[in-house]
Amino acid sequence: MKKLLHQNADELWMKRALRLAGRAGERARPNPRVGAVVVKNRKVVGEGFHAKAGGAHAEVVALGRAGVKAKGAKLYVTLEPCSTQGKTPPCTNQIISSGIREVIYGSGDVDLRNGGRAERILRRAGIKVNRGVRREECDKLNEDYRHWTTKKVPWVILKLGLTLDGYLAVPGKRWVTGGKARAEVQKLRAGCDAILVGAETVRKDNPRLTVRMVGVGEQPWRVVVTRSGRLSKGAKLFRGRDKDRTLVYRRKTWSEVLKDLHRRGVSRLLVEGGAEVARGLIKSGKVNEAVIYLAPILVGDGKKGIARVVDWSSWSWREVVMSCAGQDLCLRGKLEGAN
Question: Per-residue pLDDT for 186 more than 90?
Fold first, then answer.
């Protein structure tokens, strides 16, 4: 009975660490989202999360807040602590010097520089280690990071704005979706390192593909895939202060494009158009997540020259979440089988 109560307590404290980790959102990229809680005598004496890349790690934040109370306490952390020098010192050093008596973590780190090392280092220092608490939830929290780290390609998010009958445009209207949906797309863009479209989207819509939000630092890469290479030099993507953030891939396979983007540090890629690009990525098994905004509009059959996507409901969806964005419906979920 005592052991069961101990296990349940570990689960509850790890759940709190998971909630903290979720507060970072995409700001931590390309680092994983991590939350940490320091518990002593069944009370929280310090907690924190990794807020942004280059900033203090969750363990360091939590231990700093705990101060001298960390001595003899337990540290709950959603991911195996780092044990190598990066932009910040190894977390294992601070854990050892803090006097923590036990470390409980959820996920093992898939980064080969860290994976498995922390446990050995901490045990040698006389610290008890318990791994795998709420492991499935902790793994899922950083599914995109794990994909980027192990597959060496970005996590691909496909965004589509459609009418109820699958059209990507409406005759006589500039936008398919309403203002709230478009504002949400700006947040999607801000959470990605690159935005990709096909050449036809550039020719027809002449987009900027920038994040139009206050406080945004460096703009995401703007990526165009094309077979012919026929693109106007006067397109907005090739002008202005962000013109050097535009990449054009001509006659490249999806694998070649994604591997090159990974090499440039792109961990999350947002794909915004159009129908041919969406079909190609889906067929190639490159889409990890899809976000579809459905506007309450019917265009009708037989509309020439307007791209259409009607097979989205047959994709292998999982973990689908539905929400409203003003007048539009948003479906967001992950797709099975992405490679």
Answer: yes
The question of whether 276 is a catalytic residue gets the answer no
Q: What are the pLDDT digits (tens) for 150-177? A: 999 999 999 999 999 999 999 888 899 9
What is the average pLDDT across 199-220? 88
Measured over the CA atoms of residue 102, residue 108, residue 111 and residue 116, the dihedral's sign is: positive
- Helix locations, 23-134, DSSP H: 58-66, 91-98, 117-124
Specify whether the CB–CB gap between 58 and 21 falls below 8 A.
yes
Give the single-character DSSP code of 325.
E
pTM, two decimals, is: 0.92
Q: How many residues does the chain have?
A: 339
How high does pLDDT run on average in the chain? Answer: 93
Burial (CB count <10 Å: 0-12, 13-18, 19+), residue 319: exposed
**Residues paired with 239 in a beta bridge:** none
Q: Which residue has the tokens 């019917």?
A: 298
Identify which of 129, 68, 139, 74 has the alpha carbon closest to the alpha carbon of residue 97. 68
Task: Give residue-wise pLDDT tens across range 115-155.
Answer: 789 999 999 999 999 999 999 999 999 999 999 999 999 99
Cα radius of gyration (the chain) = 23
Reduced to 3 states (helix: H, G, I; strand: E, B; else coil), residue 3 is: helix
Q: Centre a 10 Å sphere on the Cβ of residue 272 and count the other Cβ atoms it contains.
A: 23
* Secondary structure of residue 95 in the 3-state scheme: helix
The predicted model gives 200-212 an average pLDDT of 92
Q: Residue 178, SS3?
A: coil
b/e sequence 154-175, b meaning 16+ C-beta within 10 Å:
bbbbbbbbbbeebbbbbeeeee
- From the candidates 26, 47, 59, 272, which is the catalytic residue? 59
